[in-house]
Amino acid sequence: MPEAAATTHATRALIELRRRIISGELAGGQRLYEVPLAETLQISRTPVREAMARLAEEGLLDRGGGGYVVRTFLLADVVDAMELRGVLEGTAARFAAERDPVPERLDGIRGIVTELDASFLPESGVDFEAYSDANTRFHLALAALSGSRVIERELERVWRLPFAAPSAFLPDKEYFVSHRRSLDIAQAQHRAIVDAIAAREGARAEHIAREHARRARSDLEYVVRQRLGSDAFGKR
Questions:
Q1: pLDDT level of residue 12 (50, 70, 90 thresholds)
Q2: What would the pLDDT profile of 66-89 be if each residue is shown by its tens digit?
Q3: CA distance 205 to 207
Q4: CB-based contacts of 199, cutoff 8 Å, min separation 6
């Protein structure tokens, strides 16, 4: 399979499996098998395997018994995890501004912002694969800019909780327009966080980073309510 096609199939599998988990089609405790999933999604086993490995990193699947099991979680717990992520990333941004970031690292995160800009395509399109990759690296770079190994370690732990990972997107045709608007706002926040750090404005950098995490939470709440109803939070 050509590399570009394999990447596209892996992304499609990732999005579809996330959708089925959040909708409850794949219930907590259910074991997933590569062959049936590949047949259902009409793709080969390799992109399914890659998608499941990614979902395990995001805390949606547990590894065990040579395969993967859907993790059981409460949506209210997801909201708490995303709030905690915002607190930690806000602290990371403030530390970065107050502790005089290493110039090379600051240049590096600015380069990632430029890559994120390039993922926005003409006519309101988005290269989600490119955006997801660069967005993950942005948040890793932000954690590193803090100069605190404690913050980096705790963020790595939080990112493994369900839907708390920076790039745990749910982009699909159903709500693409609203998601594109949200990505535009998120990208403006990326740029503002870096500018505040460079200007040594710790309080401002912290505030924007917290708002950035809340934007991700709002996106998730929107998708959940669209699919599961207005009373979904507090349930699985």
A1: confident
A2: 789 999 888 788 889 999 999 999
A3: 6
A4: 97
